[in-house]
Design brief:
single chain; 152 residues; alpha+beta; 2 domains; 5 helices; elongated; disordered N terminus
Amino acid sequence: MIQSKMGKSKRKLRIERKGYHRRAYTRKDGVQVKATDVPSTSFTIKDRGALGRGKKVIKVKKGLLGKVGYSTSASAESRHRALSEAVEKYGHSRVWRMLHAQTIFRKRLPDHAKSAFQADRDWVKETYGGPKPTREAIRKALRTKRRKGLIS
């Protein structure tokens, strides 16, 4: 059972585990462990977002690809036409990232849209090139190199 406590600065979750009966077993080193009743316990942890998920780090604006006529149910040829128009409008890096984000959102889903997004993402990379590194990624790489003493 999970209960949340809202505080001003931090949100904590109280985790309560049920007790159970553990059967006897033999450890790898040959020691025999007796059967016992494991008592119930409870403890608090820092809230990490929605249940079972971490903090959402990708922000997506809805409908940008749809405005240029992109649809995952369309044929590959018409999707590529729409993506070419999107590349002219938004740039190849941004379009690649849009498609990549949609692929990641559907990571655990076995739907046809995910395969269409993956195929189109790869097509954009082959046709126009991959994404350019973001300013944040460049800054992070420079900080790492400075810390390691590779540059001053």
